[in-house]
């Protein structure tokens, strides 16, 4: 894991109560996610999310409960560094499994091991909650994310050509990865 000398990776914590979503945390998460999306990050938003969007999203994840959802936040003493979450599949026949819907690291904290730490936490909590398969998808041009996912044991199980449509003109592949948590792995 790459980390810059003298700048330890921020700690990662799971959020399990809505009152942990403080106004400062929501503000910082909003500005971080908005900046990432404005700079072209593939996070599922076409335009930068605002505070209302981010509040509703994070609340809904926490309110889903610890068996059905997991939100992890990275930060040091003063600053938000990134977040990730998974949601258990709602379809009755897919209930043993969960999907990582977002993983995002603030621009100022990237390449310091934060993304890897967030992903490791998401996997660890998934094991604790008896999730069997953890899935995710990403835009086909996101080489950094792909490298991170592969290094943590995820493998491609499908690809939809030209599926992601951020605007009228651009199309990107959607790449689907999964890790089977029923099998022992060497990572984590
Ligand atoms: C993808 C993302 C989460 C990675 O977070 P990060 O904290 O910068 O990543 P880490 O420092 O933990 O790096 C872990 C590994 O990811 C890979 N990686 C991360 N960024 C990379 C980049 N820009 N280019 C190539 N590989 C990269 C490397 O394999 C790296 O391992 P290494 O440092 O040992 O080489 C972050 O770049 C991000 O938030 N991007 C914008 C949002 C996004 O694309 N999210 C994923 C959507 S599916």
From TrEMBL:
Keywords: Acyltransferase, Transferase. Residues 16-179 form the N-acetyltransferase domain. InterPro entries: Acyl_CoA_acyltransferase, Bact_Acetyltransf, GNAT_dom. Transmembrane segments: none annotated. CDD domains: NAT_SF. This is GNAT family N-acetyltransferase. The keyword Acyltransferase applies. The keyword Transferase applies. It comes from Leekyejoonella antrihumi.
